[in-house]
Every structure is written in C-alpha cells, then in structure tokens.
Design a protein that fits this description.
Elements lengths: L1 E9 L2 E9 L5 E13 L2 E4 L4 H12 L6 H10 L4 E5 L6 H6 L15
Antiparallel strand pairs: 1-2, 2-3, 3-4, 3-5
C-alpha cells in the first residue's frame, strides 16, 4: 500500500485528505482530514481530524494494517470519515515507484510529457 496527501476545491467547498492505495487492486481509501462547505445558510465546517489521520498513518507505516478493509475499520473507530474508490486497470505513480511487481494486469503508470 502507498499513501499520499491531497486536497480538493470546488465551488461548494474544500478539504484535505490522506489517500491510501492497495497496489495489488488499485482500490483507494481517502481519510478525510478537514472539510469546509458552503450553503445558502453560510459556512459549514466538518471536524478537523488531522491528528487522528496522522495517528492512523503512523500505524499504517508501522505495517500493522494489512488491507484497506482493516484500515477503514481503524479509521472509523478514530472517528475519521472515509471514502473508498476502485480504479481497476490504472497503476498510480506511487505503486509504480515502490511496488512495480504488483502491477498485475493494470496499465503501467506513464508520466505526463
């Protein structure tokens, strides 16, 4: 598994997350650090979970989490909002760099030129 920090911004709000990918399957799990949304009534802030996400990240790096299902359970106990995605057929940069032998039938990662 590989992880990366990320963020997003849309007209309805913005937030940050830590994404973990299972290089064998291409499935990902986003752990939400923070989220701020905007509605007609004003700004709506989600809880700041940066410390909790960092704790889970350290547990993951120590090799104490074996798959995304176990990571999802750990995150929800902390309580961290999660979002799963499946990207079959696509290898990520992190997996290509650290675990190229787990590519399987996925298309190889290609850098932008």
């Amino acid at each position: 598994m590989v992880g990366r920090a990320g963020g997003y911004g849309v007209p309805q709000g913005f937030g940050s997350y830590y994404q973990v990918e299972d290089c064998r399957t291409g499935a990902t799990l986003d752990l939400t650090k923070s989220r701020i949304g905007y509605t007609d009534a004003g700004e709506v802030k989600g809880p700041d979970r940066a410390k909790e996400v960092e704790t889970v990240r350290k547990i993951l790096l120590a090799g104490r989490v074996k798959d995304l299902a176990a990571l999802d359970q750990l995150a929800r106990r902390n309580p961290i909002s999660t979002m799963a995605a499946d990207r079959p057929g696509t290898e990520s940069c992190g997996c290509a760099a650290f675990y190229p032998d787990l590519r399987g039938g996925k298309a190889p990662y290609v850098t932008a030129r």
